[in-house]
Amino acid sequence: MQNSDLEYEYLEHTADAKFRAYGKTMEEAFENAAVAMFNVMINTSKVDCIHTEDIELAAPDIDDLLVDWLSELLFIFEVDFISFGKFEVKSITQEDGECKLSARASGEEIDLEKHEIDTEVKAVTYNDLKAEETPEGFMVQVTVDT
């Protein structure tokens, strides 16, 4: 049973990083999944939220949307050297056979004197992926390749 105040927790995994993120809404669970993934790589409490990225995604289902969401954030981290510390998923909707996400991520350019990179996340995987409603709210489970 999950604690209703728990935002995310890391699970045992032999080689990669696996976590569950929770929320009262699916949007909140997606936000907490992003925090969990970034805390694998960097201490998000040291990230100043002075740069924002608006993100709009569409995918065939909620699982693909979750992978696309985290993969998009990872892409921006790797290509634009932006580390995020705050995530706001404004909406997740289903229409015309697609799941759509509208979100904003806030952070700053990576400064290696300020931001110590802990573990490299190479990719978001579909391994044991879950996005589901629970009696307490919503839960997503993600494994990232490290």
TrEMBL record:
This is Protein archease. GO terms for biological process: tRNA splicing, via endonucleolytic cleavage and ligation. One of its GO terms (molecular function) is calcium ion binding. Ca(2+) binds at residues 16, 145-146. HAMAP family: Archease_arch (MF_01222). Transmembrane segments: none annotated. Residues 8-145 form the Archease domain. Belongs to the archease family. InterPro entries: Archease, Archease_arc, Archease_dom, Archease_dom_sf. Activates the tRNA-splicing ligase complex by facilitating the enzymatic turnover of catalytic subunit RtcB. Acts by promoting the guanylylation of RtcB, a key intermediate step in tRNA ligation. Can also alter the NTP specificity of RtcB such that ATP, dGTP or ITP is used efficiently. Keywords: Calcium, Metal-binding, tRNA processing. NCBIfam families: PRK00407.1 (NF001617).
